[in-house]
Amino acid sequence: MVHRIRNQLNLISLASRHIADLVASNEIVRAMEVAEQVQLATAGLQSTLSQMHDLEAGHDLKRVLVVEDDSIQRRMIAEAFRESGYFVAEADNGNGAIEYLYSAAQPDVIITDLSMPSCSGWELSRVARTSPVCRGVLLVSLSGNAVPAATEGFDLTVAKPVDTKVMIAQIDQLLASRDGERDAA
Question: How far is residue 108's CA from residue 99's CA, in Å, rounded to a whole number?
């Protein structure tokens, strides 16, 4: 987590310098876009620090990996989960998600769009289902036109546009059920 904080601080620092350069060259619109990225990075840093505080207090954080090529959708879903007390990691395609899975702590849930460039949600689900790294991970698909046959192998399918409150409630229920089964075993 310290590594994540260091990366977020570096991003904020670099972006702040970039804003100054853009303003100096009269690229105000681009400077505003970068400022928005700084604001998002700052919010992410605050969320990470809050999660560290929760860990120190003994709270058991659930981890979710949000995989979505649409950055607006990804941020909306990620922020909703952060506000619900989840530790959130993000990837913009299946390849990024697979890289994360083999380099970081195992998530409890992977939420993935089905149609993405370079590595789709279907490909990601096949890797996750066959990998010992992902044993017990819940797989959730996001789709604008999901049909049952297309989402086979997923624990839950959520239709787009996503109602984050409903999705979080469904995932909380699935996790509680999974954890209850583990406790009974």
Answer: 16
